[in-house]
Amino acid sequence: QVQLVESGGGLVQPGGSLRLSCAASGSIFSIDRMGWYRQAPGNSRELVAFITNSGITNYANSVKGRFTISRDDAKNTVYLQMNSLKPEDTAVYYCYTLNNGQSRYWGQGTQVTVSS
Predict the structure, then answer these.
(1) What's the pLDDT at 101?
(2) Cβ neighbours, 10 Å, residue 7
């Protein structure tokens, strides 16, 4: 089991920035990758970005060049730096882990609202 605690969401104006954090605890040694999904009202959950144990990153096309994912292994924490935010980035953002290549664990979600 992995427990995930997210923080950093909120309300920001278009063009602004936010940083999301996700701290993992529990069976962290079985984690292969950590990342973020998001879900806007009426939409399905979509992958935003992930980072593997070896530091390989992957981003959705819609966020490339604006979002940066990173990790601090000493703190078992993954971060999502979001710059140049747009109203279409508004969603609930969920942290997740992939463990042993097959099990997924999810955080409780944090709301990001981009609006003037």
Answers:
(1) 85
(2) 14
